[in-house]
Design a protein that fits this description.
about 220 residues, mainly alpha, Rossmann fold, Ribonucleotide Reductase Protein R1, domain 1, three-stranded mixed β-sheet, two-stranded parallel sheet, 7 strands
């Protein structure tokens, strides 16, 4: 997780701690693309024969970071279109792969308007290992942590061992995964129904073609 524009926020250390509590185990790098030596926190990731991509909303400074790493203004940048709302202009409109001086490969991407989940329960479990570990102590093996008696996860929230926002994020992502799975199943059923309909129509056509004609 890269927190850019450290020169604009004196409280970035507090923000980094907050981010770390939401995504345990994910390294947080505080950088400033506009400051001298402000990208040193990225050096451990930019090694030869490794490809790295910068993903984020428009206006966070992805192209500016790459320009500083290249030592030249190769990519066009622009200021925030609405600083109050935190919206940036979509300056980058296509993906581009560049080679840095140290040999690392870096991909500049357009600003993301939407981020969707692609992984199922396995990915959810890896992202929330702390909740999965607590869930082993719930009274019911199929506890959903939504008010069931004997829920160890809810008890951890009440005692302060687990942040309520962490559990809220877990429940929200789980709902989204369920929705995507139902949506995927519905599409699969529709494809199957269409395929069955085409096969049936082809079979009827073949029967009619070979049906003997009587006068």
């Amino acid at each position: 997780m890269v927190l850019n524009k450290a020169d604009l926020r004196p409280d970035l250390n507090e923000i980094a701690a907050e981010v770390g509590s939401v995504a345990p185990g994910v390294p947080v790098a505080i950088v400033s693309a506009m400051a001298e030596g402000g990208l040193s926190a990225l050096e451990p990731y930019l090694v030869p024969r490794r490809t790295v991509a910068l993903l984020g909303s428009s206006g966070v400074g992805k192209s500016t970071i790459i320009n500083r790493l290249l030592g030249e203004e190769r990519f066009r940048t622009s200021s925030m279109s609405d600083a109050a709302a935190g919206r940036g202009r979509h300056t980058t409109t296509s993906r581009e792969l560049v080679r840095l001086l140290g040999g690392a490969l870096l991909i500049d991407t357009p600003g993301m308007r939407e981020l969707q989940l692609w992984s199922g329960d396995e990915g959810l479990g890896r992202a929330f290992e702390d909740i999965e570990a607590l869930a082993l102590h719930c009274r019911y093996p199929d506890c959903r942590h939504e008010g069931e008696p004997g829920c160890a996860v809810r008890a951890a929230v009440e005692s302060g061992r687990l942040e309520a926002r962490r559990l809220e994020s877990f429940l929200k992502l789980r709902r989204e995964i369920r929705f995507m799975e139902l949506k995927k199943d519905a599409k699969a059923r529709r494809r199957q129904e269409k395929a069955t309909g085409r096969r049936f129509a082809a079979m009827v056509k073949e029967i009619k073609r070979h049906k003997p004609r009587y006068r």
